[in-house]
Write a structure and sequence with these properties.
This protein has about 700 residues and is α/β, with parallel strands linked by helices. The protein has helices at about 5, 40-55, 85-90, 115-130, 185-200, 215-220, 225-240, 250-255, 265-285, 310-320, 350-355, 415-425, 440-445, 475-485, 490-500, 505-520, 520-525, 585-590, 600-605, 620-645, 650-680; strands spanning about 35-40, 70-75, 100-105, 110-115, 140-145, 150-155, 180, 180-185, 205-210, 245, 285-290, 325-330, 365-370, 395-400, 455-460, 565, 605-610. A hairpin with a 2-residue loop joins strand 3 and strand 4. The two termini are about 45 Å apart. About 55% of the residues are buried. Bound molecules: 4-O-methyl-beta-D-glucopyranuronic acid. The site of 4-O-methyl-beta-D-glucopyranuronic acid has 11 residues, from loops. 4-O-methyl-beta-D-glucopyranuronic acid binds next to loops.
């Protein structure tokens, strides 16, 4: 039975999956108003349909004659639609020019307006958040604007099943966009995409990249053979103010175009990209551009031709420019064929080494997409120093919503706090300069009138009815959208919003759920790889513990544990020199073992097991303590969930219960393997005498 019906909601509101944070009941107060939606563009038309459905599905009470809701882009509004008081308020209001929105309420009458229809979509999300508790009986003047231009979800979806699955690093079923080597075109498939678009546009997301950055032979043909079908998906997304991006293969001029080269400086290559892009841009409604993974993990790229990343990005940027589209050029470039015996190569340095020197060489519509940390989405990493090194380049931050290294949506690991820490991280701290937050690096180029700006997340959704595998992982998707819209939000409040919208819990239990989720990131950290050293996962699929799993591999991800100590020396004085990639304040702080924050100690330093942390215990005792405590915390969380479970839909209760059982099993395995490993290496017993194997 579809989720909506199970909850007594109109199933036509959400067809193939759960309504997540948009259950129809949230619109009950909106449904009591007489609603006028002005405009005929696709976004407004879709919004009108949604409001009509909600009026039926969400109707909680009698329509009150006095209540009116007017929704329309600025250009559609005229005095006849608004009462005189509201019309006056609108004259005084500062409606933002871009995708922001304004909500004005006067005397029971509410206006939602925006410069662009997409802004209405984001504004509707705000209305369902704020008016669910009741129609406003006081004046409201609320204006919001997004912090960056592009708030993007990158799907790592493949068209066919392969060694990495249908969705690479996907833990929530198959792709909602592709099946059996084709783009999904069926009515039910498009309805599901529509549900998705409704969900993500309500939290401010305005672009989706449909396919995996690893573009294989089949997906390369999204640019030609499958383009007509892609247009079907793009139309649905576009009608929600969401642009469509495609990942492209840098060697497509050869594989699709029949040329003998993909050299970005070859005129035939430039012409092929220009012609191909023109066809793509004129076929796809709301086409937003390309995402490129080049010269990275064996993908083709400009280096083959002795060209730079700037040369590569710029040939695509030139092809995209006439359509106001963007190329997101990923900076995840490192040597994945490293010899583990080679201590001079440091993967953490790679992105900065490759890209910092190219600052200023990229076209205005080329945006460098930088992973939040220097290595690869570990539970704890420092912030990538590359953010501080590109003052003349458009920069987008990339987060991983899908939980590749953080429990694969079997473990609860709420990441909003981690992302918020990254976005608020002041690159100039300790150094005396003006604060420069990562979120502002991402917004800076727009302020300078240059490149569009962006925040990107690797999506965590699939065909599972609850979208994300673990029902509580919906909150990661929600938090991504909200923080990309406004990086200044308090992640705990965002979590509170999500809990309030998704469930109907008594206040005390809602608080407990927020608490349980808010600490889940640090709980996950506590029973996995310690003190920022990362990895220790099983190679390949990356689930579960294997302390030495990556130690003697070509991937550049080592912890260097021996009988005396552990950690990676990345100092200038005695190590790889990575610390020098940071602005002075942080360079100094990380360089010195006495000032390096505990949680990153082993990322920056190789220390003896007996090294005393700022927190007071030795490294090895800290490992034991956190690993025992981590498992206990999971036990407590699972018990708390049992108190909450009776108040949520049965399917959710059961889903989360099962996931906690697996998390607990896995956390115990992590605890025992990590503790045993450290005990055997160091010979140091646990001061509390607990059982180590
Ligand atoms: O972390 C690695 C993943 C790969 C992924 C790559 C990337 C899509 O293990 O699966 O490839 O990052 O970000 O390109």
């Amino acid at each position: 039975m579809p989720y909506g019906q199970q909850n007594g909601q109109d199933p036509s509101w959400f067809t193939g999956g759960e309504p997540c944070w948009l259950p129809a009941r949230r619109a009950a107060s909106l449904a009591t108003a007489r609603t006028t939606v002005l405009g005929d563009d696709p976004v407004t038309a879709t919004l009108r349909e949604d409001l009509q459905v909600l009026t039926v599905a969400g109707a909680g009470g009698e329509a009150a004659g006095e209540r009116r809701l007017v929704v329309g882009a600025l250009a559609e509004l005229s005095a006849q639609h608004l009462g005189p008081v509201l019309a006056g308020a609108l004259e005084d209001a500062d409606v933002p020019a871009g995708e922001g929105f304004a909500v004005l309420a006067r005397d029971g009458e509410v206006l939602l307006t925006a410069a662009r229809p997409a802004g209405l979509r984001h504004g509707l999300g705000w209305l369902t958040r704020r008016f669910a508790g009741g129609w406003p009986d006081t004046d409201v003047t609320h204006v919001e604007e997004p912090h960056v231009d592009l708030r993007v979800l990158d799907h790592w979806d493949n068209m066919t099943d392969g060694p990495m699955g249908v969705v690479e690093r996907g833990y929530a079923g198959d792709s909602i966009f592709f099946a059996d080597g084709r783009v999904r075109t069926g009515a039910a498939d498009l309805a599901r995409v529509r549900d998705y678009a409704r969900l993500i546009s309500s939290i401010g997301v305005n672009a989706v990249c449909l396919n995996n950055v690893n573009v294989h032979a089949t997906e390369a043909h999204l640019l030609d053979e499958h383009l007509g079908d892609v247009a079907g998906l793009a139309a649905v997304l576009d009608a929600h103010g969401v642009r469509t991006l495609l990942s492209v293969d840098f060697s497509a001029p050869i594989s699709l175009g029949g040329l003998d080269t993909a050299d970005p400086l070859d005129e035939r290559v430039a012409a092929w990209w220009a012609e191909t892009t023109k066809r793509v841009a004129t076929t796809l409604p709301g086409f937003g551009g390309y995402v490129v993974k080049a010269d990275s993990e064996n993908r083709p790229g400009p280096h083959t031709y002795g060209r730079t990343h700037a040369d590569g990005a710029n040939v695509l940027a030139a092809a995209l420019a006439p359509f106001e589209a963007v190329v997101f050029w990923r900076c995840f470039v490192y040597d994945c064929h490293q010899d583990w015996r080679d201590r001079s190569t440091d993967r953490a340095r790679a992105a900065h080494d490759h890209f910092a020197g190219l600052d200023g060489e990229f076209a205005p519509n080329a945006v460098l997409q930088v992973k939040s940390g220097p290595v690869d989405f570990q539970v704890r990493e420092p912030v990538s120093p590359l953010f501080g090194a590109l003052p003349r380049t458009g920069v987008a931050v990339e987060f991983q919503i899908t939980q590749e290294y953080t429990g694969q949506q079997k473990h609860l690991c709420h990441l909003g706090t981690q992302w918020s820490e990254v976005l608020r991280f002041d690159l100039n701290a300790h150094g005396g300069g003006e604060p420069l937050r990562v979120a502002d690096v991402a917004a800076r180029s727009r302020r300078q009138g240059g490149s569009p700006t962006g925040i990107v997340g690797v999506a965590n959704v699939g065909t599972d009815t609850n979208w994300t595998g673990h029902a509580l992982a919906q909150a990661n998707l929600y938090a991504f959208g909200r923080l990309a819209w406004d990086p200044g939000l308090d992640p705990r409040e965002v979590l509170g919003e999500w809990v309030e919208q998704t469930f109907e819990l008594p206040a005390e239990l809602a608080g407990e759920l927020v608490e349980l989720m808010a600490r889940s990131w640090s709980v996950y950290e506590s029973y996995t790889a310690p003190l920022g050293v990362g990895w220790m996962v099983r190679p390949g699929h990356h689930y579960g513990p294997d302390v030495d799993g990556y130690e003697y591999t070509p991937w550049g991800t080592y912890h260097f544990a021996d009988r005396d100590g552990i950690g990676v020396d990345r100092t200038v004085a005695t190590g790889t020199g990575y610390t020098a990639q940071y602005p002075t304040g942080w360079a100094r702080t990380y360089e010195d073992v006495r000032t390096c924050p505990d949680e990153l100690l082993l990322f920056f330093h190789h220390v003896p097991y007996s090294h005393v942390l700022a927190g007071g215990s030795t490294v090895v005792q800290h490992v034991y303590d956190t690993h025992f405590a981590g498992v206990e915390a999971v036990e407590e969380s699972a018990a708390t969930w049992e108190r909450i479970a009776g108040h949520v839909p049965t399917a959710t209760a059961q889903n989360v219960r099962e996931r906690f059982a697996e998390q607990l099993r896995s956390a115990r395995e992590w605890r025992d393997q990590v503790n045993t490993y450290f005990f055997r290496k160091s010979g140091v017993p646990d001061v509390a005498g607990r059982r180590i194997h």
